[in-house]
Design a protein that fits this description.
Layout: H1 2-11, H2 29-48
């Protein structure tokens, strides 16, 4: 029974398929620029899929 409960909890989380570890506190300027480029690329990809 506990397994069904755990499975339900996991269904509430929607993943984008990426497994990325990131620390905002340790980010340098290059990291921040890369994050912005990634957000822009994601937006373009989502817009193109509609």
């Amino acid at each position: 029974m506990a397994k069904k409960r755990d499975n339900k909890q996991n269904n509430d989380f929607v993943s984008d398929g990426r497994d990325i570890e990131f620390s905002q506190e340790l980010a340098d300027q290059d990291d921040l620029e890369a994050q912005e480029r990634a957000r822009e690329a994601d937006a373009r990809a989502k817009k193109g899929n509609k």
